Amino acid sequence: MEFIEPLVRHFLGIFFLMIGLQFAGRSLGLYQRMRFSHINYGERGSAPWWHRQTFNVFRAFILGVCVVRIFADIDPWLGVFGPLYVWPILLVGMLLLIGSFTTVNYLQAYMHEDWRSGIDPRKDERKLLTGGPFGRSRNPLFLAVMAGQLGFFLALPSVFSLVCLVAGVLVITRQAREEEKALADKFGEDYEHYRVRVPRWF
Asked: Which terminus, N or C, of the chain has the lesser number of Cβ atoms within 10 Å?
């Protein structure tokens, strides 16, 4: 515990900071080359818009808390679950976060030019991905993100991370339904055949 606990504590702050920088850098690079944003919030006040706002608020809180924890002991304010705050669980959480990060990057690379964050309202030539990881789950990217949220809870078992986990899962499952509606509108019968053949999650 003397080695693992500070390792995981520092890992969390650096990990979430690097995720923010990577996502921002990727989005800016795509915009510079493609001349349109791959990040879509949706119409103001719509369900996808609220999902994105909620996700951003929690992401900012998570980053802030994890960075501050490197320099100050704020765990009593987070409601840490003492029986779960042991090195095997912290280590599993850290490894799950790394696995989630790797899988998300793999899936975004697999999607290539078809990757979007949110629902893209533009009429373009995107393809319906039905093979590879999308032949086993209609939402593998969301599954990877939820695995990361579970990893965060295990790496920092607390009331704070539990609230983040529950809120994250609710937002993602609701967003998945919204995105599937948009895909059904765009691809019609092709998407219906895909929906019948491939499960939403597993």
From this structure: C
